[in-house]
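Page 37, top half.
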Amino acid sequence: MVETALAFVVATAAGLVPLINIEVYLLGAVALLDDGALVAMALASALGQTLGKIPYYYVGRGTISTPWLRRRAATPGKWTERVSRWRARAEERPVWGAGLLALSSFASVPPFMVVSVLAGVLRMNIVLFCVVTFVTRSARFLILVLAPAWAMGVIP
């Protein structure tokens, strides 16, 4: 139980601060814990990462203001054109935006922090953002902890 709560805290911090790596933390737990605890830690980490990315979403939405984003929004140019094109594309095809979010959340390509801000800029539904993030992060972390755990049990 303590390891699950600690995984949640570390994952939330890692969601907010890109220098903290939850994947390394979870891989360290693989050598010490059984599969049940690893599943609980993976799910708690997914929840923590989801909560940690919500502020980035709101930065993109404009609810939380940053000087850099304000300067970008005030300066017409490539940034404004790109955002308006992406917003139109996301409004025309909501699956496209959710798909990009899912890909980024699962594979971190493109960087998930950037896509979290972009989701806010594109005014993606916050519930959709949270659900897609939680599901794909859960899958990522479950694979991350169970694959090595399974390999360590199978390989003598």
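Page 37, bottom half:
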Amino acid sequence: MLSQKTLFASLIGLLLLTSSAVAEMPDDHSMKTSKFHRIEQPLSLKVAVTVGGLALIGIELWWFIYSKSKVSPTKLTNNE
């Protein structure tokens, strides 16, 4: 469990971090810059990226959860 000192320091750090992020926001949120332009992507590309991302997440879950071989504890302690 966290000590009171660690918890208090974490909360103060979080408050300082959020207050500095709010202080840096410009007053006029509708300011538009010409640095970035929106590029419309085709729907098929959006679907392909989404399906690819979900497939990678599924592979990662399978790798870390289901791919472990089931070894009984007796085989681990037996040194023959």
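Margin note: The chain has a mean pLDDT of 77.
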